[in-house]
Structure formats: structure tokens, C-alpha cells
Design goal:
Elements lengths: L12 E5 L5 E3 L3 E10 L4 E9 L7 H16 L1
Antiparallel strand pairs: 1-3, 2-3, 3-4
């Protein structure tokens, strides 16, 4: 297993679901919350709320999050 201290900043990012139980709203319904984290710094680069069960349809949202993270990484 790789330890964060063995990585350089922006060498590896991890995309993961923050919690198993969806966030529920009265207006919009239930959402899974995903995060993008820099593995070396253990820094959350961004989060994305995705309607439950529609991760496959969330590609544009996830791509937008990755592009934002790339801009942060280059700064």
C-alpha cells in the first residue's frame, strides 16, 4: 500500500463517495456526494452532488470538477 508521503502533489488523485447514505433534500431529492482528493496532500480539490443512482449520467459534472482541479493544480 502506498503512503501519502511517498507521493508528490498532483501525482495521484482519488475520486470517492463521501458517505454511503445519500443526502436528502425536500426540493431536489436524494444525492450521493463524491469528492476528488489529492492523495499526497490529503486535500479535497472539490465535491460533486450527484442524484442517487445516476453516476453514469454525471460525466459532464465530473469532467467539470476535474478541469477545475487541474486549474488549481497549475496555480
Amino acid at each position: 500500500m502506498v503512503h501519502p508521503s511517498e507521493l508528490s502533489t498532483n501525482e495521484a488523485w482519488i475520486f470517492f463517495k463521501l458517505k454511503q447514505v445519500p443526502v436528502s433534500t425536500q426540493r431536489e431529492g436524494e444525492f450521493d456526494v463524491f469528492a476528488l482528493m489529492d492523495a499526497a496532500r490529503l486535500y479535497i480539490l472539490g465535491t460533486e452532488f450527484v442524484p442517487v443512482g445516476s453516476l453514469g449520467d454525471a460525466a459532464p459534472q465530473i469532467r467539470k470538477q476535474l478541469e477545475a482541479a487541474h486549474r488549481i493544480a497549475k496555480a
